[in-house]
Amino acid sequence: MRHLMNPLDFTVGELERLFDLANDIEHNMPRYAHACAGKKLATCFYEPSTRTRLSFEAAMLNLGGSVLGFADADSSSASKGESVADTIRIVSCYADICAMRHPKEGAPLVAAEKSRIPVINAGDGGHQHPTQTLTDMLTIRTLRGRLDHLTIGLCGDLKFGRTVHSLINALSRYEGMRFIFISPDELRIPDYITEMLREKQIPYEEVIRLEDKMPELDILYMTRVQKERFFNEEDYIRLKDFYILNRKKMKLAPADMLVLHPLPRVNEISVDVDDDPRAVYFQQAQFGVYVRMALILTLLDIHVD
Ligand code: CP
């Protein structure tokens, strides 16, 4: 039995197979319509979500399976003090696979250790969000044709943004990558990530101004300032609109640069960018369904001929 806690849980070869499967699913949906008949996915979400929870549910429904679960801790027995370890023992009696989001870093790992079914980390605190990373990688691979030899700018809240941490980890295994970290000082990328890049001799830069770096980018990965991770509201208000990507700034970017965002967006991308063909963040959310379908099939070891 396999779980997914971190994108590095899959080898590069396994990821390639997963993305090939996701691309096949996209183009041949009817072939997969009954692949999970009789199987159940539990979504145990202790933190709010729109995309991750609903795309997991859509993925399982598209595969002919069923879904059950809770969308917030208050509507589960966590509100009465039940531990994650006990909860997953119970969920293992009711479902075949579980996607879990939790505000505490490591909570899905605790669940995986006690589980009788595969557990997928659907986001744990400011730590990791591996299925968002799979979504981001599938988007880049499908629309740019490769996951290597790319310059990727990551902009916004690089301190608390778990999608950023997961994506850098995953892309650091591909050749020719160059990272440009664009953030205010207070939201810089954590030291453990820059140390990892230095150890692997992967080039990176840390800058504050987005405009200066736009012409160099193959991918611009915008992020929201993570209000829910701030201890102090004043700091959030001061930093929340530090970056606003708009149509004027997009004129500085290469014609084939892609703009990704894990969403939800607040103000960091102006709506006037949405019609730009380089803005692929809504398409990215659609890729999230295909890759989660591929992931469910892979973890349940179901093969469709
Ligand atoms: N990208 C993402 O994790 O979105 P949700 O918080 O809506 O699931």
Automatic annotation (TrEMBL):
One of its GO terms (molecular function) is amino acid binding. Keywords: Pyrimidine biosynthesis, Transferase. Pathway: Pyrimidine metabolism; UMP biosynthesis via de novo pathway; (S)-dihydroorotate from bicarbonate: step 2/3. Carbamoyl phosphate binds at residues 51-52, 101, 129, 132, 263-264. Residues 150-298 form the Aspartate/ornithine carbamoyltransferase Asp/Orn-binding domain. One of its GO terms (biological process) is 'de novo' UMP biosynthetic process. Residues 2-141 form the Aspartate/ornithine carbamoyltransferase carbamoyl-P binding domain. PROSITE patterns: CARBAMOYLTRANSFERASE. It comes from the Bacteria. Its EC number is 2.1.3.2. It catalyses: carbamoyl phosphate + L-aspartate = N-carbamoyl-L-aspartate + phosphate + H(+). It is an enzyme of class 2 (transferase). L-aspartate binds at residues 80, 162, 224. Pfam families: OTCace (PF00185), OTCace_N (PF02729). NCBIfam families: asp_carb_tr, PRK00856.1. Catalyzes the condensation of carbamoyl phosphate and aspartate to form carbamoyl aspartate and inorganic phosphate, the committed step in the de novo pyrimidine nucleotide biosynthesis pathway. Belongs to the aspartate/ornithine carbamoyltransferase superfamily. ATCase family. Heterododecamer (2C3:3R2) of six catalytic PyrB chains organized as two trimers (C3), and six regulatory PyrI chains organized as three dimers (R2). This is Aspartate carbamoyltransferase.
